[in-house]
Amino acid sequence: MDIEPKFIAVDFAELNADEQARRADEFFELLNKRRTVRKYSDRDVPFELIEKAIATAGTAPSGANMQPWRFVVVRDKDVKRRIREAAEKEEFDSYHGRMSEKWLRRLAPLGTDEHKPFLEIAPYLIVVLRINSIEEDGETEPTYYSQESVGIAVGMLLAALHNAGLATLTHTPSPMKFLQEILKRPKNEIPFVLIPVGYPADDAKVPDISRKPLNEIMEVV
Length: 221
Description:
Layout: H1 17-32, H2 47-57, E1 69-74, H3 77-98, H4 101-107, H5 118-121, E2 124-131, E3 133-136, E4 139-142, H6 146-163, E5 167-168, H7 177-183, E6 189-198, H8 214-217
Antiparallel strand pairs: 1-2, 2-6, 3-4, 5-6
Helix pairs in contact: 2-6, 3-7
């Protein structure tokens, strides 16, 4: 099949060195304050912020430009309750048999367990699904590099939500098939991550942990 590619001029505004450095510093300082939050207020969040953050995530690069992601926003209280019940069942099994002792030791400083009240309290849950195939002209085609593509989009989503002044949590109960069933998603949409979004509770606290310094995560060759 011969397909003639079409191109348009890149929309790129070059910055001077001072502006580049200022933006880089400000963006780092902003994201360096991002923390995973597990205790939420039930205070409402303007839906426009959720929409804009998801639109931002949708600008992520993807393999063959297939954009293999779906973002399902859950705000219905009954659906959130059902998700919590199903997630806590899977988490109970994980904490009481599925996880190795080494894994549990890694989790201990975070103070986590199978109880996930934030799944009901946070005003929104964003369920990110990875589309692993598409149907076109009666044929099934896989999406290319879908795992990597959706991972990049989720990173951009977290940054956008934090930039909008909202708290988040990346929750990955395993297995997550219950999300497909509760949300009635087609079989080609695979749950990737579940993200509660909202404002931290007034008494919210986070673990006293630190991030690795730059010299431990970067090498120059």
